[in-house]
Design brief:
This protein is an all-beta fold. It has no helices and eight strands. It starts with 12 loop residues before the first strand and ends with a strand. The mean pLDDT is 93.
């Protein structure tokens, strides 16, 4: 979704992805990720659920946030915090608000990242992988 070199504070980059469920059983979906490296505490991450009229990984030109304020963080926002604080497993994962995904269900997600204005972030790096897991 992102590949930065010499990123600086005050610049927010966004990337979007549409997730489609093709399972045969009704399921709940949760989001979590794995983070490596030492930059994670200095990366601000906002994950917003919505729809995309023109989905094209990783573009966000047609993305519209859900109007619902699910967690008191703003319209469609499911997570707002640091990359290092993003849930690392299913047990602590961010729940998608759709309680019953069925075959053909989909949603789009916008990931917005920025670097904290902190000199300690200089020269650090991080990698992250994100998972959407459906369980019935």
């Amino acid at each position: 979704m992102f590949n930065f070199a010499n990123q600086r504070p005050g610049v927010t980059a966004t990337s979007c992805i549409k997730v489609l469920y093709s399972g045969t059983l009704s399921a709940t979906v949760k989001l979590y990720g794995t983070v490596t490296g030492t930059l994670g505490p200095y990366v601000n991450l906002v994950v917003t659920r919505g729809s995309d009229s023109t989905p094209s990984f990783s573009g966000c030109s047609g993305f519209t946030p859900d109007p619902t304020n699910y967690n008191g963080l703003g319209a469609g926002v499911l997570y707002s915090g640091t990359l290092a604080g993003y849930p690392a497993g299913y047990a602590s994962a961010v729940s998608d608000p759709n309680p019953a995904w069925t075959s053909g269900s989909s949603s789009s997600y916008q990931f917005a990242v920025s670097i904290a204005n902190n000199d300690a972030a200089q020269g650090l790096s991080a990698n992250a992988g994100f998972t959407w897991e459906a369980r019935s």
